Amino acid sequence: MIRTPLRPLARVLTARARGENPDAIERENLRQRHAEMQAQSRQRAEGRLLVLGMFFLCAFTAIGARMATLATSEPVEPVASAPGSAIAMQRADIVDRKGRILATNFETHSLYAQPPQMVDPEGAARRLVEIFPDLELERLVSDFTGKRKFIWIKKKISPEQKQAVHDIGDPGLLFGPREMRLYPNGSVAAHVLGGAGFGKEGVSAAEVIGVAGVEKQFDDYLRDPANGGRPLKLSLDLTVQAAAEQVLYGGMKLMNAKGATSILMDVHTGEVISVVSLPDFDPNDRPRPPTSGFDPSTSPLFNRAVQGVYELGSTFKIFTAAQAVDLGIVNSETIIDTSGPMRIGRFPIGEFHNKNYGKLSVADIIVKSSNRGTGRLALQIGAQRQQDFLRAMGMFDPTPIEIAEAAGGKPLKPRKWGELSTVTISYGHGLSTSPMHLAAGYAAIANGGQYVAPTIMRQKGPQLGHRIMSPEAARQARAMLRKVVTSGTASFGEVPGYQVGGKTGTADKPKPRGGYYESKVIATFAAMFPAHDPKYVLVVTLDEPSVIAHGEERRTAGWTAVPVAGEMIGRVAPLLGLRPQVEPDGLAAITLTSN
């Protein structure tokens, strides 16, 4: 910028020559300079005002757009609108081994209220209580007339309930889409499926998460979109499961039992075809866990098949006999003196009803269920070898079946495993396991001596594990179990055409705080069928059974659990595709002679 001098010399000399005042020139130039400076300042101020105006215009435009969006959208809870908390709605189905639906998704609606938009809060509250009797009128009125702007009323409602609420006509009562878990078969396989609930929730969506059973165990798989909606296929057979539940429920009522459980397992694949725990529940309306009491088995949520850890009594005797045969100590015909007295330290070892069987073969020890007989076999086996054998059967760890609650069913073993424990454990006392452990142990005998892990997942073929006993020991053990049914304590378990083999077990029931009840027992029957070529193992356990038979009160497994198991085998064997067969017999000894 070039400044003009205030008193230019040429103009000053000319002015003086003309007799004019040169100061007028200076004043004129100064005025022009001030005018130019004022114009420049005004231009800068106008530019700044323009920039500031554009900024405020953009800000008000953004705020107005956000307010318009909020005004035209439904309210959302803060937890659901937080950054990075998108709600995954879809969840894969669960099906049985034949593809039949066990759990699926169902589209429904939630109900919420915006009190500032309500026309008649008190009238709407009264109508809602008529539709939903579990709601409290006073609390609804208080919420609707208070300062709250958003209130959940029902997280899921039926189409009929939605229509009834819609008929109220209050603009402050609004609906949101909701996906819920549906179990179309009701309580069938309830303890296996477990149930689902809501995780993160919003008005327009809700996250469905597993809370128990396989729903919880496979929650990540069921929620993973990468699986393309492929269903989770279980080993259960829906038809067999329903039949087993029906038979077991009838047996539990007939035998006046407090609870019951049954497990049907494939002895080669480890697939659990059916598992029942009673009392049960409807996973569509899953009850709340108990908040008081010392006995968890009183809750219908308690899964007796995997969480129920009991002393299973004489069902363990076959393990002792099979191990003794496997070690070459005895065979099924070896004679053992079972007569008394027998003492371990200061503790006497007696028989049921103080019987004295005298000398018995190993097979008859199992048939008669002799405590002294199996105890003397166990002493020959020794504590260490007994522990190794039971450990190989998985009796010291929680069962590996894929049900979330199974991890809590850890067996209880003695702290000090001496001679007394060796003897008592040989006939099923002193070591507490779940019925699922027992099923896996009997499956090893049934399949020829190899461990097979119980699984709730569909398998493509045999899943035999490490060897526990020789095939010959397993064969002799199966023959002993068959004899128990044909001429022993499990005669009520015989099913014509299916050749059942098994062992009964009656154990005193432990108290929740220690000790045992005097007149309460756990009655168990562990069976396999067909005995000559076993395909399946069935374990039935009744909690506190009691039945009057022949004028006497009976609690033992032979009178309670065995008839129920026999009825169940007769019902489910045809459903499993097993045809009745004539039991094969041994070849007769024939001597050829000449005429």
Automatic annotation (TrEMBL):
Q: Which InterPro entries match?
A: Beta-lactam/transpept, Beta-lactam/transpept-like, PBP_dimer, PBP_dimer_sf, PCN-bd_Tpept
Q: What SUPFAM superfamilies is this protein classified in?
A: beta-lactamase/transpeptidase-like (SSF56601), Penicillin binding protein dimerisation domain (SSF56519)
Q: Which Pfam families match?
A: PBP_dimer (PF03717), Transpeptidase (PF00905)
The signal peptide annotation in the UniProt record is: none
Boundaries of each Penicillin-binding protein transpeptidase domain copy? 262-548
Q: Where are the transmembrane segments?
A: 49-68
Q: Where is this region: Disordered?
A: 278-299
* Localization per record: Membrane
Penicillin-binding protein dimerisation domain location, by residue? 89-223
Q: What keywords is this UniProt entry annotated with?
A: Carboxypeptidase, Hydrolase, Membrane, Protease, Transmembrane, Transmembrane helix
Q: What is this protein called?
A: Peptidoglycan synthetase
